[in-house]
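Predict both folds.
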Amino acid sequence: MRRLLNAIYNGAAALAALCMVGLLIMVMASVVSRELGFNLRGIDSYAGYFMAGAGFLSLAHTLKKGEHIRVTLILNAISKPWQRALELWSLGVASLLSLALAFYSCRLAWQSFDFNDVSTGVDATPLWIPQLTMALGTVVFALAFVDEFILEILNKRQSTQNAEMVRSE
């Protein structure tokens, strides 16, 4: 099960990297087209879609690598039993919030598909297509939070403090 979950997180990160490459291509194409005196219609919208996709698809991998910003000021000031209770509470709330975000992201993509909603730009892209990256990213993010919550309950969660965090606090 652990290998499958890690493969899902890494797969989402790989898709985020592909979105970054797509963003680079869109920006380069936009710059080149302006320099050569012609306009590629809708290219700015596609750059935005790729940027959003990269952001959402990378959320779970970033969480699992311990790279999300954590405010540990209170955690470091309380005893171990209270630290564990606060971690459980925080991960429980984060799991619920991420599940709600995933639900509404999927619902938004489905409604855009159902209503044939298109972008208001000149490209008239069906909005459910770029919204799929948001929906997929939030679903994997919710899965990662639930995974962290279960690992914390089972007392098998790895410490997420990396060397950069230790130096900066």
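Second protein follows, with its predicted structure tokens after the sequence.
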Amino acid sequence: MGIYIAGTGLFTPNESISNEELVKSYNAYADLFNQQNKEAIEKGDLEELTYSSADFIYKASGIESRYVLSKEGILDPQRMKPKFKKRKDNEPSIQAEIAIKASKEALKNANIEIDQVDGLICACSNLQRAYPAVSIEVQQELGIQGYAYDMNVACSSATFGMQNAVNDIKAGVAETILVVNPEICTAHLNFKDRDGHFIFGDVCTAVVITKVNDSSTENFEVIDTKLKTSFSNNIRNNFGFISKNEDLDLYSDDQLFKQEGRKVFKQVVPMVEELIANHLKENNLLVSDIKRLWLHQANLSMNSLIAKRLLGRDPNEDEMPTVLNRYANTSSAGSIIAFHKYSEDFRKGDLGVICSFGAGYSVGSIIVQKT
């Protein structure tokens, strides 16, 4: 039984922030901080904040800009975080709203009607509430029958969600499943942290997984999936429902995204390379059989090194397309954005690998072939 990616969808926010705009905001905040804490800094009790720069951001990450849902709040030196209006319980949540938009595009591209969808998986790095599940809210708004559930494997959520969809279809639980990835990453980013204030952007992707091979759409057959996890504290976000019971400052740096970037780079690169190489070998494929790697969009140097170690040479843009220069790191949605934007040139029989990796650590690999 073949299982296929029948269509993908992408929601991109209307607002974006360039590196230059972000740096101007951060540097203004740094001036305010240093002025307000001048005495403590002079005593050595606090470290003076140093300026960020657009050149520093690009060299560190390859990012030039990012799409966001709340530009004004992020760029306000007195606020330094998105500003969202509280919604009533009977109004669609922010995540549901963007998930619906991406889902409708994916269903249209797949030429699949709502009544053909049996299930929905909402897989993303952070969910805006514990319950009711965002997935069930999206299911309700779209009018999907069957079941829905949320899941979180940080930056690998999309590929892990797709693997779950494949397994459900193989088990006969469903024939068609919608996997959505509403990533509002700016909400858990510390914009007051020079080393990380530039990393994330907001976006939502959606993927239709089905066993129905409709010849009127351009399908990709899922050849195989492979997952791996290994615990690490080097990427962490501590905020949760326990936080207030620990009498913590819910606005402290510890309650937001933090990472040991150099350690992550050193440990994750070989982990991803090994998983992809073994995955191909298990399916009797060579790296040279693969036309394209749609990798997690977190860091250009990291992706380039992973591809180089696999290929034995520097990759070209066609082999490893990049979207993080415009979108920044969009967590689990990154590799799906790359696939969504750079798969139309595939011809029948062409092979590619969708791969995501991140906190956990977690790595998800999906080998696909154009039908």
